[in-house]
Design brief:
10 helices, 3-stranded antiparallel sheet, about 70% helix, Four Helix Bundle (Hemerythrin (Met), subunit A), mainly alpha, Arc Repressor Mutant, subunit A, 2 domains, elongated, 3 strands, single chain
């Protein structure tokens, strides 16, 4: 059981959301695995009510599915699901790239930030950590890289859709790196995106984005 004193700055629902999200994103909870509310409540040392509230939030994020009279299960993304998620992502991110380049939204400090994210991913890929740990860490940095670009576009509706999708994107990206096993390329494929954004070349930046995504998308 986790000590409840560590929950003082969080609502119990948020504690449940963070706990369950971590279990799903680290692969401890597998696709189609049933979530045992009683077990989770016991592990956290809280009642089942905030667990249920947390599960509702995860359901709205597309991480779990609730089946009446059966329970809650971790979502299993199909090839069709992943393809659709990536199609939506490419469409929205292409619009964001156009806006960023047209309005000159990125300055040198922004490019430095993005390059630092790439360096961090490369360091993780070359580390001696086990594959699963590296995969999770790179995925986290990858999402930070792209979210930074989304935020700079000042396109709130597109951002909102992408932010709503980002948990499912994380699941899809984790699945893809599991399939390819090529963590170094996950880092490397970001470099052309930054290169063309810095040059103000929206067309090639969008091509680089598609190349980055297509490398990992299930066929």
């Amino acid at each position: 059981m986790i000590a409840q004193t560590s929950y003082q700055t969080q609502s119990l629902k948020d504690v449940a959301v963070d706990y369950l999200t971590k279990k799903i994103m680290t692969g401890e909870y597998k696709p189609n695995e049933k979530i045992n509310e009683v077990q989770v409540a016991n592990e956290l040392g809280i009642s089942r009510a905030p667990i249920r509230e947390g599960i509702k939030e995860l359901s709205s994020q597309g991480l779990v599915t609730q089946i009446p009279r059966k329970g809650t299960y971790v979502v299993e993304l199909t090839e069709k699901d992943i393809h659709e998620i990536y199609q939506i992502r490419v469409s929205l991110e292409n619009c964001i790239i156009d806006k960023i380049v047209r309005d000159n939204k990125l300055k040198e400090k922004d490019f430095k930030f993005l390059e630092k994210k790439i360096e961090t991913m490369e360091e993780i890929a070359s580390s001696d950590d086990d594959f699963n740990s590296k995969k999770i860490k790179i995925n986290r940095e990858d999402i930070k890289f792209h979210k930074y670009i989304w935020e700079k576009a000042d396109s709130p509706r597109r951002q909102e859709i992408l932010f709503d999708l980002h948990r499912q994107l994380q699941m899809a990206m984790l699945f893809d790196t599991e399939m390819t096993g090529d963590l170094k390329n996950t880092a490397e494929t970001h470099k052309d995106i930054v290169k063309y954004l810095r040059a103000g070349d929206a067309k090639n930046a969008k091509t680089a984005l598609v190349d980055h995504i297509e490398m990992y998308k299930m066929k």
